[in-house]
Amino acid sequence: MTEKRGREKGFTLLELVLVLAVIAVLAAIFLPIGMNQLRQADITKANADVQQIAAALTQFFKDLRYFPACNSPVANADCSPRVGTGATDNNNLKFLAVGEGAGDLSGKYPPGTTDPVWDFAANDDAVTPAKNNAFNHLVVNDPVANGTAGEVSDYPTSGKAWGGPYIARLGLDPWGNAYVISVGAMEADGTLIAVGAKGWILSAGPNGTIETAPDDLVLGGDDIGFIYYTE
Q1: Which one, out of 48, 50, 141, 193, has a CA that is 20 to 30 A from the CA of 84?
Q2: Rounded to 5 degrees, what are φ and ψ at 85?
Q3: Is residue 16 a part of any domain in this protein?
């Protein structure tokens, strides 16, 4: 008796085209949803980070009665607020960058720094770039960024004293840029370095460009954070 073998049946070209069409339609529907969920997760994380930074600054202010804007050279120790006319102006740091470690974060500043909205070069009074790193102000008491905390050249450690660390962990924003804190608006004894300036904490957002000017009343573009000082 002869055994009959059945033929193995494969997909026809039409069937393959239909399957690929269905996959393409599903991808077109669900991929944007997935990407939007990821984007929202990044925005949520950035907002949470900004809140933690704000809490750290608030506690710093409670302890010392001014914001962390020290730019004192070691040879001329003065991280206390300015007092009176002609006092040594060593609290003139206009911004802090929040990222990883205690070193120079200039390579992690949000791109687009030539934009006149916020020019890092024009606002950088620090001869030592690491002085702009918030780690040296909020995690350790080393605003002069010389690697030794608690010296006389640092924030006061008695009276109205530095009582940190004020934040457990610092890191870059979800898009790989440093968070930026404009502190130059309310340093020292409450006087403004730049008349009309406001203080803010922000991430440059998904587009990576700071679009908030120092005198803005609301955040610009897709910047994430908030303005925490007004006249």
Answers
A1: 141
A2: -75, 140
A3: no
Residue 57 lies in a domain: yes
* Strand boundaries in 168-212, DSSP class E: 179-182, 199-203
Range of the domain at 211: 50-229
Count CB atoms within 10 A of the CB of residue 43: 16
Query: Is residue 178 in a domain?
Result: yes
> SS in 3 state form for 140-163?
CCCCCCCCCCCCCCCCCCCCCCCC
In tens, the pLDDT along 100-145 reads 889 999 999 987 555 667 878 777 777 788 999 999 999 999 998 8
Give 107 or 188, the one with higher predicted confidence.
107
Residue 213, token pair as written in the block = 């000017």
Phi, psi at 95, each rounded to 5° = -155, 155
